[in-house]
Amino acid sequence: MQCQVYIKDDVLYAGFQDSAMILNEIQYQVGEAVVDFSMFPAKIYRNMLSQLRGEFLTSMEKQESNEEFLVTLKRYTQSLAPNEMNPYYYFYMDSFVQLLMYLRYQDSDVPQLLWDYLLIQGEESKAGNISYNEMSQLTLSIAGMMIFDIQMRQSRLKEDFSMITSSEDNYAGLTPLQRLYILSKRGSNYLTGGFRTVLRPDYSNMPEESDFKKTKAFMLKHKIDIVETAEISDIDSLLGFEIYHTLKAGLPIRKCKHCGDYFVVRGRIDTEYCDRIKEGERKPCSIIGATRSYWGSKADDPVHIEFQKAYKRNHSRQRVGKMTHNEFQVWSEEARNKRSECEAGMLSLDEFKFWLGNK
């Protein structure tokens, strides 16, 4: 599968050619896809591969053609959630689909397609004129290999992000791009990927037109820009392209202090938390982290300690019906005002404790 990418106004546009899954273009802020790929939950890509495999086996059982199978896949692609439209997973999904269709008719080894991008290597499997049950087992094995390969790439990316963002003395004084160069010398294919750049319109439906007047009219009507486009044929080249342009744009990659995953910093340079909602949480890390950071700084504050004692006591009274909700709200607002007065030195700690009713 060929991928054409260009960057415009901090947005990376990835267009796909010869795609089995009928997806033309993915757009995302530069840097977001690669960090999302590094922490994408396993259950999501397991479910995606399982869905593709199930659709294929159903199609095979119905004795449908590959063309009919692709019609089903088009509906599936259109149902994907925004967080599932990641170009790196799309490479895996599309290659998996192409491999499935290849296996249905070919009497040969698993094609080079499988080994062109996998980090792992293994024994090639024979296909061609095999039964449904044999195909079921073979496709399950291949899906398992892809899952393992995704996890290996995620692990490698996290290790490389750790080096790029490290504060260790070994890397002191090196810019992120200099560190990226060192990674390329260690075997990471970030600056050595093979792709060529060409000038193309930023409009995917630009017609092939030889008439100058028609071409000019079309470009003016649709306000078409001409952009430098990279033609990419493998995952590692796309990784290198995006990471390089992320760092070149001065966008820091940072590890979230709450969830531990990496994110691209936009806006405030001192941001320490990402905006993702971690599994099992209801609020994004940016809110949870900031709240914990605030209250953590108050852990030894006597004014905060006395306020919390009274707050918990009255909250319990409200829960058992000894104080109404409105009474608790009125008390909470007044208690916060008293706390502010105490913090400002307008009220002594003993006076604040007496008002709260604390012993």
Task: Outline the secondary-structure elements.
Blueprint: E1 2-8, E2 11-17, E3 25-29, H1 32-39, H2 42-61, H3 66-78, H4 87-105, H5 112-117, H6 132-165, H7 176-185, E4 196-201, H8 212-221, E5 226-232, H9 235-248, E6 253-255, E7 262-264, H10 285-297, H11 302-319, H12 325-343, H13 349-356
Antiparallel strand pairs: 1-2, 1-5, 2-3, 4-5, 6-7
Helix pairs in contact: 1-6, 2-3, 2-4, 2-6, 4-6, 6-7, 11-12, 11-13
Task: Explain what this protein looks like in three dimensions.
The structure is a single chain. The protein is an alpha+beta fold. Helices cover 53% and strands 11% of the residues. It has helices at 32-39, 42-61, 66-78, 87-105, 112-117, 132-165, 176-185, 212-221, 235-248, 285-297, 302-319, 325-343, 349-356; strands at residues 2-8, 11-17, 25-29, 196-201, 226-232, 253-255, 262-264.
Rg measurement, Å: 28 Å
Summarize the amount of helix as a percent range: 40-55%
> Major sheet: order of its strands?
3-2-1-5-4
Termini separation: 72 Å
Give the percentage of residues in beta strands. Answer: 5-15%
What is the averaged pLDDT score?
82
Supply the helix-strand structural class.
alpha+beta
Overall morphology: elongated
